[in-house]
Amino acid sequence: MTDTPIVIAGAGPTGLMLACELGLAGIDVLVLERLPQPRTVESRAGALHIRTMEMLDQRGLLDGFLERGRPLRDVHFSGLGLDLSDMATRFPYALFLLQAEVERLLEERAAQLGVRLRRDAEVTGFSQDETGVTVELADGSSVRADYLVGCDGGRSTVRGLAGIAFPGTSATMTTMLGDVELAEPPAADIFQERREHGRFSVLSYGPDWYRVLTNEFDHVAGRDEPVTLETLRKSLLKIAGTDYGMHSPRWLSRHGDAARQADRYRVGRVLLAGDAAHIHFPAGGQGMNTGMQDAVNLGWKLAAVVRGQAPDLLLDTYQAERHPVAARVLHNTRAQTALWRVDDHTSALREVLGDLIGIDEVRLRLAGMISATDTRYPMEGTDDLLGRRMPDLDLEHGRVHELLHRARAIVLDLGGLPPLAAVVTGWADRVELVRACPAEGSGLGADAVLIRPDGHVAWVTRVGEQPDLDALRAALTTWLGPAGPHGEQVRHGPALPPMQNPD
């Protein structure tokens, strides 16, 4: 007998996003957070990328984030600007929003969904068997759960206790960070330069509030070496030749460019997500976003297994899909830190890359990588749509993202295909059949698609083709589990009325 189906260790963006996904699916969730109070000052991350905003939009949550954030038209690759304004999305920008605010909004949503959050609750041990996991806490208490998910950061206790290796590359540089006030700030809201002794950035975070960062190469500070305003000032003076009148620090910190990834995301009933599974230099602001995207990939799968609808093997697809994504993030952040070095050879390389970014195909390729809009999961079949995110098409009575607010799979019938209903009936408790017409100019080139709860396409039939119903059954079985009792009425999506079949 378990106390709760799911225990999540860590109430950062990844853990809270996962808790929201599971709560939306009706799963009882307990989040254990080591810190006694929410973070209000410390915000390592500061932006949401396109794919993360799309996922929040799929759950009907994005408006609250947009109200509190500031759009940024550009992202960057090692400080080289990437214009997003022509990206194929409703949100062709990054959203400046501090991690502390992201956590606050997600915590509010989790509470609305009935998620339980215990603060000052540090995980110190666990044991697992065939029926569950017993999680031990620092206060001597324990919790019994079906599954434990470690979302407890780069120094993850859960990862260490699980014996999961964390291979990668060690730090080669030191970054100091300070959220401070400046008496004489630079004119630009985002100011970054490479100089003889390193690289520095000054980012405007609000009225009289700036984030100052310095990068010193080939110097690795001790892990526990303190950061003071004077050490940051000294570093900035060395690199920039000025401290911009820096004073009144809110937060000071230090990190390096170590890049490591768990060799396994799952050991039995214990899984990892976010920084517990991968760490890297925060180049391009990808870390928080990658973790939240981990959570959306894992949440619906874990819910299906806990409900007994899908076999435990479904959880293995989490690593198969997300491990390569994070590996590529580590790869591109290593490349970006290499391009920040200040020698003549690197400067020449930056000039060449800067010219190449002027080519739209190159710019969009890099922007798709940083924003995660080019993520494609491995799927059976050859159609280019398979595994990719479903475009948020305008439909006659709504749009695609509105169909995903309840995190249920969707069979979207755009071509009036009567045979689909008979197939979908076997999964009527897990999937909705929505018949709709795309709005003018919103064509997909497909008559029907199966959209997973995370918004990725798992089956497609092109316009004019005979639908492969066996392939649809196979996809439904793979992603939603075996069919249930037949004869149930197919559920249609609430946002769109059924489309009349052609005569």
UniProtKB/TrEMBL annotation:
Pfam annotation, one family: Rng_hyd_C
Cofactor: FAD
Alphabetically ordered keywords of this record: FAD, Flavoprotein
Ranges for domain FAD-binding: 3-332
Annotated region described as Disordered, given as residue ranges: 482-503
Flavoprotein in keyword set: yes
Protein name: FAD-binding domain-containing protein
Cited SUPFAM superfamilies: FAD/NAD(P)-binding domain
Gene3D superfamilies: 3.30.70.2450, 3.40.30.120, FAD/NAD(P)-binding domain
Family annotation (PANTHER family): BINDING MONOOXYGENASE, PUTATIVE (JCVI)-RELATED, TRK SYSTEM POTASSIUM UPTAKE PROTEIN
GO MF annotation, one: FAD binding
